[in-house]
């Protein structure tokens, strides 16, 4: 049986008269009695060694900003709210869609179409009514980021795009806020605590914590050869990272690590905490593949870091007026080339030509990932995933071998040296690159064979030819 | 977990996008190899990997972050490190990468 204190015994248990250190930027002394509801609600975590009344009061007096109310933000917010963080801001401009629900556990089928922030706060209020929830139902951007972030003690990056990730890290450096950053795609997750304890920009007199740019100096290039099929995400993978993210945030707040390093009352040794990048991977291709966690020891603040290093020119005013340009820095890839018109055909024209018997003998290569292909394909299409095609092309270049090896095995009698090849992908970018690669390898047999891209990929096929096609 | 590399080799782990690019999660490469030669060795095997993956990834040796030598801005890295037999190297691209289309 658990002993519960009655109303009259609360003060004896919880008011020991100690001075609780200021929780940081949110001001005011935090020493007070816990209410009976707080005492009941948080008792199971308060009795854990290292938490206690002081730790709980630090949580109650903290302000946490969660940027992103999706696959990371939902599980993270549940535990932040559950633990009793006093003020919880949530930023997201999106609305709930049915395709979110397999991983975004703070939303519900009944709230599809609602702003994610409002939906998540509805869920959180169901868990804990004590925190103050602050909705920001728009996306964070260089103009509003500093104003929002300045109102909080700790920031959690639960976003899903590189430009925002650099923006949030930069603002956290400039405003001296600790940043708990997590990310997840497909079957991989990462988690790292950045800028904690927070240290003013440019300070390098001893080892300090890194910022996002110290770890990842630049984003993947715009022209990177990413296959269209590479998107997708597993619920438990992103969920695990969001939960771990909440765990780190709670730890920081309870330990008062979010107080900036310029505060000389803070003991020096806490600056020596080793920054660690947690990497989670999960194997699906091989049925017996194990999951793995790796904790990687990261380096500290970099002397020449663009954001926090010694000659940094980064300022809040600059960011607000467009310097640096985050969108450009992480610019979305634009196709490097567009094939000439005679090497392209629209989906409807291809369909028409097939129906009229104008291309009786041809090869149709579908370069989507096999998962996409598994939902459906054009009759006669052969799946050659783009990644595999590139790997094979590189191997042929390196080691020699017949260029035709890159083509799927087909009946010799069906294929002459002038049999045309049509290439289709998910949305029409990879297929153009595939056409280029095949020509480069000489698969066009010196021009005797046409290699043609189907414009706009299977998306165009769905739009122009077969509205019922199961395109993902 | 990852099996031990054969004699005279080290293991290299390819995370996330690095795994998509190489179509493998792990492989054994001949050791010793100076860290400064790592990217060139991989580029030889996987044409285009340096620009699209390696230059924006972080690298660890035996779970410790290493500063890659020969950065474009002339900064020095861990030039003296030589990857030894039995070491575990990891290529860790940033997440998320945005899907293009």
From TrEMBL, chain A:
Zn(2+) binds at residues 211, 214, 305, 308. Binds 1 zinc ion per subunit. GO terms for molecular function: ATP binding; metal ion binding; molybdopterin-synthase adenylyltransferase activity; molybdopterin-synthase sulfurtransferase activity; thiosulfate-cyanide sulfurtransferase activity; URM1 activating enzyme activity. SUPFAM superfamilies: Activating enzymes of the ubiquitin-like proteins (SSF69572). ATP binds at residues 71, 92, 99-103, 116, 160-161. It catalyses: [molybdopterin-synthase sulfur-carrier protein]-C-terminal Gly-Gly + ATP + H(+) = [molybdopterin-synthase sulfur-carrier protein]-C-terminal Gly-Gly-AMP + diphosphate; [molybdopterin-synthase sulfur-carrier protein]-C-terminal Gly-Gly-AMP + S-sulfanyl-L-cysteinyl-[cysteine desulfurase] + AH2 = [molybdopterin-synthase sulfur-carrier protein]-C-terminal-Gly-aminoethanethioate + L-cysteinyl-[cysteine desulfurase] + A + AMP + 2 H(+). Residues 1-11 have a biased composition (Polar residues). One of its GO terms (biological process) is protein urmylation. GO terms for cellular component: cytosol. Keywords: ATP-binding, Cytoplasm, Metal-binding, Molybdenum cofactor biosynthesis, Multifunctional enzyme, Nucleotide-binding, Nucleotidyltransferase, Transferase, tRNA processing, Ubl conjugation pathway, Zinc. Residues 1-34 are annotated as: Disordered. Its EC number is 2.7.7.80, 2.8.1.11. The active site is at residues 228, 425. Its cofactor is Zn(2+). Pathway: tRNA modification; 5-methoxycarbonylmethyl-2-thiouridine-tRNA biosynthesis; Cofactor biosynthesis; molybdopterin biosynthesis. It is found in: Cytoplasm, Cytosol. Its main location: cytoplasm. It comes from the Eukaryota. Residues 358-470 form the Rhodanese domain. Plays a central role in 2-thiolation of mcm(5)S(2)U at tRNA wobble positions of cytosolic tRNA(Lys), tRNA(Glu) and tRNA(Gln). Also essential during biosynthesis of the molybdenum cofactor. Acts by mediating the C-terminal thiocarboxylation of sulfur carriers urm1 and mocs2a. Its N-terminus first activates urm1 and mocs2a as acyl-adenylates (-COAMP), then the persulfide sulfur on the catalytic cysteine is transferred to urm1 and mocs2a to form thiocarboxylation (-COSH) of their C-terminus. Plays a central role in 2-thiolation of mcm(5)S(2)U at tRNA wobble positions of cytosolic tRNA(Lys), tRNA(Glu) and tRNA(Gln). Also essential during biosynthesis of the molybdenum cofactor. Acts by mediating the C-terminal thiocarboxylation of sulfur carriers urm1 and MOCS2A. Its N-terminus first activates urm1 and MOCS2A as acyl-adenylates (-COAMP), then the persulfide sulfur on the catalytic cysteine is transferred to urm1 and MOCS2A to form thiocarboxylation (-COSH) of their C-terminus. In the N-terminal section; belongs to the HesA/MoeB/ThiF family. UBA4 subfamily. This is Adenylyltransferase and sulfurtransferase uba4.
TrEMBL record, chain B:
Pfam families: ThiS. InterPro entries: Beta-grasp_dom_sf (IPR012675), MOCS2A (IPR044672), Mopterin_synth/thiamin_S_b (IPR016155), ThiS/MoaD-like (IPR003749). One of its GO terms (biological process) is Mo-molybdopterin cofactor biosynthetic process. The keyword Nucleotide-binding applies. It comes from the Eukaryota. One of its GO terms (cellular component) is molybdopterin adenylyltransferase complex. One of its GO terms (molecular function) is nucleotide binding. Keywords: Nucleotide-binding. This is MOCS2A. It comes from Lasiosphaeria hispida.
């Amino acid at each position: 049986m658990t002993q519960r204190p009655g109303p009259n015994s609360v003060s004896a248990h919880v008011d020991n008269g100690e001075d609780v250190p200021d929780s940081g930027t949110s001001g005011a002394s935090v020493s007070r009695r816990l209410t009976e509801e707080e005492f009941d609600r948080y008792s199971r975590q308060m009795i854990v060694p290292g938490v206690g009344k002081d730790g709980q009061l630090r949580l109650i007096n903290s302000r946490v900003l969660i940027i992103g109310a999706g696959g990371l933000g939902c599980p993270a917010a549940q535990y932040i709210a559950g633990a009793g963080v006093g003020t919880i801001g949530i930023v997201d401009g999106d609305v709930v869609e049915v395709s979110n629900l397999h991983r975004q556990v703070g939303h519900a089928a009944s709230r599809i179409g609602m702003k994610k922030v409002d939906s998540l706060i509805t869920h959180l209020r169901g868990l804990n009514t004590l925190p103050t929830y602050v909705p920001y139902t728009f996306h964070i951007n260089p103009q509003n980021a500093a104003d929002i972030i300045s109102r909080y003690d700790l920031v959690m990056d639960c976003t899903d795009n590189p430009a925002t990730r650099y923006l949030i890290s930069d603002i956290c450096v400039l405003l001296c806020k600790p940043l708990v950053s997590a990310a997840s795609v497909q079957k991989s997750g990462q988690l790292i605590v950045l800028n904690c304890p927070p240290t003013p920009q440019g300070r390098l007199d001893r080892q300090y914590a890194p910022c996002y740019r110290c770890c990842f100096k630049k984003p993947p290039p715009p022209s990177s050869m990413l296959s269209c099929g590479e998107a997708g995400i597993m619920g438990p993978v992103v969920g695990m990272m969001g939960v771990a993210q909440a765990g780190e945030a709670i730890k920081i707040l309870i330990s008062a690590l979010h107080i900036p390093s310029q505060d000389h009352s803070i003991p020096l040794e806490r600056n020596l905490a080793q920054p660690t990048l947690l990497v989670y991977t999960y194997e699906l291709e091989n049925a017996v593949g194990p999951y793995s966690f790796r904790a990687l020891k990261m380096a500290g603040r970099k002397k020449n870091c663009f954001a926090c290093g010694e000659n940094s020119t980064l300022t809040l005013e600059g960011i607000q007026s467009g310097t640096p340009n985050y969108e450009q820095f992480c610019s979305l890839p634009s196709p490097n080339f567009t094939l000439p018109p005679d090497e392209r055909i629209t989906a409807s024209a291809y369909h028409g030509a097939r129906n009229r018997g104008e291309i009786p003998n041809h090869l149709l290569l579908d370069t989507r990932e096999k998962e996409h292909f598994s939902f459906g394909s054009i009759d006669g299409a052969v799946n050659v995933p783009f990644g595999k095609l590139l790997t094979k092309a590189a191997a042929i270049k390196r080691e020699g071998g017949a260029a035709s090896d890159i083509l799927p095995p087909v009946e010799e009698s069906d294929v002459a040296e002038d049999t045309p090849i049509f290439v289709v992908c998910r949305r029409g970018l990879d297929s153009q690159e595939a056409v280029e690669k095949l020509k480069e390898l000489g698969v066009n047999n010196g021009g005797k064979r046409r290699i043609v891209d189907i414009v706009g990929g299977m998306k165009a096929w769905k739009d122009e030819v077969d509205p019922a096609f199961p395109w993902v | 977990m990852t099996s031990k590399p054969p004699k005279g080799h080290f293991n290299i782990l390819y995370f996330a996008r690095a795994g998509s690019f190489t179509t493998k999660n792990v492989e054994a490469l001949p050791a010793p190899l100076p860290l400064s030669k790592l990217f060139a060795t991989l580029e030889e095997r996987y044409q285009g990997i340096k620009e699209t993956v390696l230059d924006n990834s972080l690298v660890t040796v035996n779970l410790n972050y290493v500063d890659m030598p020969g950065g474009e801005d002339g900064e020095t890295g861990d030039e003296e490190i030589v990857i030894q037999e039995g070491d575990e190297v990891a290529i860790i691209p940033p997440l998320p990468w945005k899907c293009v289309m």
